[in-house]
Amino acid sequence: MTDTKSTDDVTISREMSSSSSKTSSLEKEIVPVNRSIKKKKPNSVSKSLVGLCKIAAKHLPLVFGVYAMGYFNFSIAWILGIVGITAATDQWRKERNYRMSTARASAIYDDKDVIMARVSDLPSWVFFPDFDRAEWLNKILKQVWPNVGHYVRNIILESVQPGIRESLKAYKLGGFKMEKISLGTMPFRVGGVKVYDKNVSRNEIVMDMDICYAGDCDIRFSVKGLKGGIKDFQMSGMLRVVMKPLISQIPLFGGIQIFFLNSPSVDFNLIGVVDVLDMPGLNGILRRVIIEQIGAFLVLPNKLTFTLSDVVSPIAVKIPEPSGVLRVRVVEAKQLMKMDRVLGIGKSDPYAIVTVGSQEFRTKTIYNTVNPKWDFYCEAKVESLRAQNCFIQVWDYDAGFPGIQNDDYLGRATVDIYSIAKVGKKDMWVTLEDVKSGMIHLELTWFSLMDDPVMLKMHAAETQSLGLSSALLIVYVDSATSLPSARTSSKPDPYVIVTAGNRSEQTSARMRTCDPTWEQALVFLVCNPESDDLYLKVMDQKTGGELGMEKITLVSLLTLPEMELSHQPLSLKNSGPESKLIVSIRLKVMVPGQPMEGDDTILDTGDFATEPPSPPPPPPPPSAETVKVKPDPKPDVPVGNDTQNSTPAPSAAASDTVSLSGISERTSSLDKSMSSSTNTLSVTKTSLDRESSIRRRQKGGLPPGVVSQVQLTLRYSSQRQRLIIVVHKVSQLPGGDQPDPPDPYVKLYLLPDRSTNSKRKTDIVKDTVNPVFDETFEYTVAPIDLPARELEVSVINRKGRFARSPLMCSCVVILGHHDLSQAVTQWFDLKPSE
Fold first, then answer.
1. CB–CB of 230/181 below 8 Å?
2. How far is CA 78 from CA 65, 69, 192, 281, in A?
3. Which residues does 788 contact at the CB level (< 8 Å), separation at least 6?
4. How far is CA 162 from CA 92, 322, 331, 359, 560, in A?
5. Which of 179, 174, 176, 405 lies closest to 283, judged by CA?
6. Cα separation, 388 vs 382, whole angstroms
7. CA distance 399 to 405
8. Residue 254, φ and ψ in degrees, nearest 5
9. Would you call 557 helix, strand, or coil by DSSP?
């Protein structure tokens, strides 16, 4: 007992000593903290006072405004309006900060942390099997990022700053100047790399990089004397890198071209004095200007080019090579949403914006209508045929303060340019995305480029009558020599203005030199090369004076080999005696409607252009167990009871009897094509069984439980994360023998969602049991969710909308059972409603 007690005492004493030691250690940790708090208390109080003063200063204009409205007896609606604007601005800031924090996390952490944190922000190599991880490249970028920062700083000062300054002048915001440019220590992140090994030239290497920048850059500027800056700058997009031409010397390729396929997404925050004015107005102006300058610098048809070897001429790397020209005619739209509502009745003031790369075109505004007719033409140069898309956005115009998004969104449409080039020309209705209703009518024509002057005479008359282009002109401004000085005291800052037709473009300026080197290419669309002229003017940026000019008649290019003038020194007029401008000029004739040839499945070409695909080729003769023939001779007849069978069969004759002579003729024709008597008997039996099946179906006998079928085309775009559904037609609906046939339409739900956002409906086709719709619908679906989704297809009779159940028949398509990487066109069985 004594030993046990002593042992317990020792244990208790040890526990007490350990607990006392822990307590003492905790006290040691807590005491310095409390002391530090006590020491910093006066400083924290002063900081809180300063913060309180800042908050009061920010809200002082609002309080003063409310007081002034009460003093001058303004309506309370003004106060409510200001409060509403303030609340909307705060909400807008919160949403923007959330997006920025998410993108910043994706840029900072590795792929594993991103995957575990948020599945929807997975890198591209997860969704696209042809994209490879690029962690090795991210490690290299982190090492060389300081050097990249110095190079980008020079580019911004020389190329981007002058463009921003000129763009802000349109908003009466002059005096823009960059004061500090630092990209920080966090490089942009490459989410995945895809290297093309098919359908590319043997003389080049092409790869796409999914990049995201959300670094700690510090950019300071001044506008009209107000100091400001940009922080939390974020940019993401698909960057293409082309290395060409391949050479037999180190570094094995002569140059690099870097560009964005489409405009990247850009976001940022303002700091400094302009932070007080960080309202959607000023922010929208700066955002628009910055995006425009990025597009003018890095988005197709603009490229950032580098020549890496003296063996290769800069022309081979820097001169553009357009694939062709896309002409877009925005004809009209219908069933647009009514955004200007008053007492439930209203219209819209719609206009459309067409975007191809950095090229943007705007239609006129049609007031007070939801069915506008624009008949607007525009033409865009296309550099990468398989990678570029044509985007159409429809907006409702609302007047307001510049820089604020006053207009209401009416939907958008995306057209794959390669699908247009394959057929030459398409006239189609496209369903607008992200809205409840609306369709837009487009007429798109693809123009190939040729160097044959004979083709110009064949096709120029039609386009010139509409005032459209018939040729493409490429002007490469290489350099100038022995330019005169605009002022005797200093050398000029020369740049070149190139004018073709009614359009002018200019190169960047070169500072304080009489022998500038530009190496820039400018591209123009020319209406009539036989009458238009090309003007080249060398100007001084300091004085605005002219240093020389030259005029070239484009008709003279038609007689040159390949219609090209290569590295030609031109003597300048009104300039020095030895002043010369060295240029290269190419003229290409636009040939319309030339379908593309070759394999179109090698590269990922995005979506088909939301137009119903052409019907599949005729199938081989089906077996007796899988033949269906319907009594109506006009529409196509689906074949097979199985929903996986997508082969249409020939339409049956209209009469109720089948002649035996027809059977004997088919049997005899099959006998001639077979070599063995066994096969002949088998085919004869199959033919007789087929005719028996035809007679049963013509008398109205259908397989049990199957009333009709619907033809759908299903396609998933991994690039846009969109499920595209084309509802072609429905066959053999019940009610064809009744005096008043149904008015059917098709309704879609993407299960398990049955909300209004998931519902899609076709137009109503009246008085028919074989309706043809040919309408396209889209859903936004993440690739990881696609196999678990189901598509519910229902056929509704509009005449029965007041009955208990207007549903005629329906089916459910399990998307995971189909390979949707390619367009799948199939007939699906519809079960009758119970």
1. no
2. 10, 8, 51, 19
3. 816
4. 30, 27, 37, 20, 37
5. 405
6. 7
7. 10
8. -80, -25
9. helix
pLDDT on residue 343: 54
pLDDT tens for each residue of 716-761:
887 677 888 989 999 988 877 777 888 889 999 998 888 877 888 8
372-382 per-residue burial string, b: 16 or more CB within 10 A, e: under 16: bebebbbbbbb
DSSP character string of 195-230 = EE-SSS-TT-EEEEEEEEEE---EEEEEETTEEEEE
Q: What tens digit of pLDDT does each residue of 405-421 get?
A: 678 899 999 998 988 99
What HEC string does 762-817 produce? CCCCCCCCCCEEEEEEEEECCCCCHHHCEEEEEEEEHHHCCCCCCEEEEEEEEHHH
Residue, of 611 and 241, whose pLDDT is higher = 241
Question: Would strands 177-182 and 722-731 be described as parallel, antiparallel, or unpaired?
Answer: unpaired
Token pair 């149904």: residue: 742
User: Which one, of 567, 563, 592, 564, lies nearest residue 580 by Cα?
Assistant: 567
Q: Which of 414, 295, 276 is CA-nearest to residue 358?
A: 295
665: how many CB neighbours lie within 10 A of its CB?
A: 12
C-alpha to C-alpha distance for 397 and 603, rounded to whole angstroms: 39
Q: What are phi and psi of 57, to 5 degrees?
A: -65, -35
Angle at 358 between CA 353 and CA 362, to 5 degrees: 20
DSSP 403: T
CA angle, 514 then 520 then 526, to 5° = 120
Q: What's the CA gap between 589 and 464, in Å, rounded?
A: 13
279-307 tens-digit pLDDT: 555 666 777 787 788 888 888 888 888 88
- Give the DSSP per-residue string, 13-50: HHHHHHHHHHHHHHHHHHHHHHHHHHHHHHHHHHHHHH
Q: Are 602 and 571 in contact (CB under 8 A)?
A: no
Q: Give kind and range of the element (H or E) at residue 117.
A: helix 111-117
Among the listed residues 272, 181, 214, the one whose alpha carbon sits nearest the alpha carbon of residue 96: 214
Give dist(CA 488, CA 610) in Å, integer: 63
CB neighbours of 737 closer than 8 A, spacing ≥ 6? Answer: 700
Classified as helix, coil or strand, 79 is helix
% pLDDT > 70, the chain: 70
DSSP letter string over 227-289? EEEEEEEEEEEEEEEEEEEE-SSTTSEEEEEEEESSPPEEEEEEEEGGGGG-SHHHHHHHHHH
Position 319 scores a pLDDT of 84
| Percentages of the chain per state (helix, strand, coil), in multiples of 5 | 30, 35, 35
Cβ atoms within 10 Å, residue 443: 15
Per-residue DSSP letter, 610: S
Query: What burial class does residue 80 get, using C-beta atoms within 10 Å of its C-beta: 0-12 exposed, 13-18 middle, 19+ buried?
Result: exposed
d(CA 794, CA 437): 19
The DSSP 8-state label assigned to residue 159 in this structure reads I
* C-alpha to C-alpha distance for 683 and 677, rounded to whole angstroms: 10
Q: How many residues does the chain have?
A: 834
- Whether 112 shows a pLDDT value over 70: the answer reads no
User: By C-alpha distance, which of 718, 529, 689, 712 is closest to 624?
Assistant: 689
User: 136: burial class by Cβ within 10 Å (0-12, 13-18, 19+)?
Assistant: exposed
Per-residue pLDDT tens over the stretch 613-644: 333 333 333 333 333 333 343 334 333 333 33
Integer angstrom CA distances of residue 199 from 59, 210, 325, 446, 598: 61, 21, 20, 20, 10
- Alpha-carbon gap, residue 533 to 547, rounded angstroms: 20
Tokens 């203005």, residue located: 497
According to DSSP, the residues that pair with 211 across neighbouring strands are 190, 237
